[in-house]
Amino acid sequence: MKVTSKGQVTIPQKVREDMGIRPSETDVDFVRDERGRWFLKKTKQNRTKTSRFRAAHKAGKLTMSTEEILALTRG
């Protein structure tokens, strides 16, 4: 895996699927065990509110105008 200049890596799709990691819904952390090894750990989410974009995704219709779609995303 390559690391970007910002220190970012891409978590492989199979790992994301197996761990249940979803974009903008899942928090992860790096933890070190007693032997000094590092692991990726899914952390508990502190969010209680659904993203307005995720909520609009389920409410949108193909026949909606641009103004109606924007109104959904603006809450």
Continuous helix count: 3
Main pleated sheet: 2 strands, antiparallel
**Fraction of residues in helix:** 25-40%
Amino-to-carboxy terminus distance: 39 Å
Series of secondary-structure elements, N-terminal to C-terminal: HEEHH
Name the beta content range: 15-25%
CATH topology of the largest domain: Pemi-like Protein 1, Chain: D
Level-2 CATH architecture of the largest domain: Ribbon
Please give the CATH class of the largest domain: Mainly Beta
Rg, alpha carbons:
18 Å
Number of domains: 2
Shape: elongated
Average pLDDT for all residues: 83
Strand order of the largest sheet: 1-2
Q: How many individual β-strands?
A: 2
Structure description:
The structure is a single chain. The protein has 75 residues and is an alpha+beta fold. The protein has two domains: 1-44, Pemi-like Protein 1, Chain: D (Ribbon); 46-75, no CATH class. Helices cover 32% and strands 16% of the residues. The protein contains three helices and two strands. It has helices at 13-19, 52-59, 66-74, and strands spanning 27-32, 38-43. A two-stranded antiparallel ribbon has the order 1-2. Strand 1 and strand 2 form a beta hairpin. Helix 2 runs antiparallel to helix 3.
